[in-house]
Design brief:
Helix content is 30%, strand content 21%. By secondary structure, it is α/β, with parallel strands linked by helices. α7 runs antiparallel to α8.
Length: 309
C-alpha cells in the first residue's frame, strides 16, 4: 500500500482515516502516533507511518487525545503488531479498560445528518489495560520532549490537546474542528470552517467553551484538529479568536441533552446523566403530525359534502 501523508509542520504528518485524522510525529530516530482513527485502517496507518519515517519500526508509544470510537478504532489491531504503551488522561481510563461506556450521544444538536445518526455510533469501552499508561501530571508528552499536553475537557472529561511551543504547532483532537462535523456534506467535501467540538458527542458545553478559550490563547501557527484539514497562519488565528469570543452564540445548542446540564463522569466512568429529551421531542412530533393529519382529513371531508338544495 502506497500512502503519502501530508507534512503540516516540521516532523508532523497527518493522515485521514475516512472521517478522522491521525498524526505521526517524528522525533530523532523514533516517532509517536497521535490517535488511532477509524476501525479497519491499521494497515493504512502503518503505511502512512512507513512513508513518514522511512522504516517499519513501531512507534515509541501511542498518545490518545480521547477514546471515542473514531479515535481508537484501529488501536487494538495496531497493538497486536506493535506492543507499545498507550498514553491517555486518567479520566479516559474507564473507557479504555472496559469499565464504562461513554455518555450517550445527543442527536438533537448540530443540525446535520451526522448528528441525527449518532445514536448508531459505538460508545462501548475497549480494554487495552495491558498497554495503557496515564499521561504524566507534569504535562510532558512521553516520547516527545518538545511537546506538552493540555487538558481540554468538554467533548470528553479527559480530552487533551498537544502543543509544541517552539513553532506553536497545536494538535487539538476534538476540542475543536476545522469542518462542520455534524454535516455529512461538509464531512464529505472537507469544507474548511472553524467550529467547536463535534456537538453530538460533547458532554459539557461550559468546559468545551473554556477549552477553546485556552487553545485560542496559545496563538498557534498551525492548527491540526481531529476532523478537517489542518489550518495555519494569521487568518486561522483570527477565526480561532472569533470562535472563542462567540462560542456560546455560535456553538452551544439551544436544546439537547447536555445543553443545560453536563454529563457527570469520574475515573470510574458515568456518575449521572441529565434526562434524555428525545422521547418527549419525538412524542411532540408524532402528536403534531397526528393533529395535522386529522385537520387535513376534516377539511377534505367538508370539501366533499354535497350542496344543500
Amino acid at each position: 500500500m502506497s500512502i503519502t501523508p501530508r507534512e503540516v509542520a516540521e516532523d508532523v504528518f497527518f493522515h485521514r482515516t475516512l472521517i478522522v485524522n491521525v498524526f505521526i510525529v517524528r522525533t530523532g530516530s523514533s516517532w509517536v502516533l497521535i490517535d488511532a482513527g477509524m476501525g479497519g485502517y491499521a494497515r493504512s496507518i502503518r503505511a502512512a507511518a512507513r512513508a513518514a519515517t522511512g522504516n517499519d519500526a513501531p512507534p515509541s508509544c501511542v498518545v490518545l487525545t480521547h477514546g471515542h470510537f473514531d479515535h481508537i478504532g484501529s488501536l487494538e489491531e495496531l497493538l497486536d503488531e506493535w506492543n507499545c504503551p498507550v498514553y491517555a488522561h486518567r479520566l479516559e481510563r474507564p473507557y479504555l479498560t472496559g469499565r464504562s461506556p461513554y455518555p450517550p450521544p445527543d442527536p438533537l444538536v448540530g443540525r446535520g445528518s451526522m448528528a441525527l445518526l449518532s445514536r448508531l455510533y459505538p460508545r462501548a469501552p475497549i480494554d487495552i489495560s495491558t498497554h495503557l499508561e496515564l499521561l504524566p501530571e507534569t504535562a510532558t508528552v512521553p516520547g516527545l520532549l518538545d511537546w506538552r499536553w493540555i487538558h481540554t475537557p468538554g467533548h470528553t472529561a479527559g480530552h487533551v490537546s498537544l502543543f509544541r511551543e517552539g513553532d506553536r504547532t497545536l494538535i487539538a483532537g476534538d476540542a475543536l474542528t476545522t469542518t462542520k462535523q455534524e454535516s455529512l456534506m461538509a464531512v464529505a467535501t472537507q469544507r474548511r470552517e472553524l467550529h467547536g467540538p463535534p456537538a453530538y458527542f460533547t458532554q459539557d458545553w461550559d468546559a468545551a467553551a473554556a477549552s477553546v478559550n485556552k487553545l485560542a490563547a496559545l496563538n498557534p501557527e498551525v492548527l491540526a484538529a481531529g476532523h478537517g484539514h489542518p489550518l495555519r497562519g494569521g487568518m486561522m488565528r483570527e477565526q480561532l479568536r472569533a470562535l472563542s469570543a462567540e462560542f456560546e452564540r455560535r456553538e452551544v445548542p439551544s436544546m439537547g441533552r447536555y445543553s443545560g446540564h453536563p454529563a457527570v463522569t469520574d475515573e470510574q466512568g458515568i456518575v449521572s446523566l441529565p434526562p434524555d429529551p428525545l422521547p418527549k421531542v419525538m412524542a411532540g412530533v408524532i402528536l403534531a403530525a397526528g393533529l395535522s393529519y386529522a385537520i387535513t382529513r376534516s377539511r377534505r371531508g367538508r370539501g366533499r359534502q354535497p350542496a344543500r338544495p
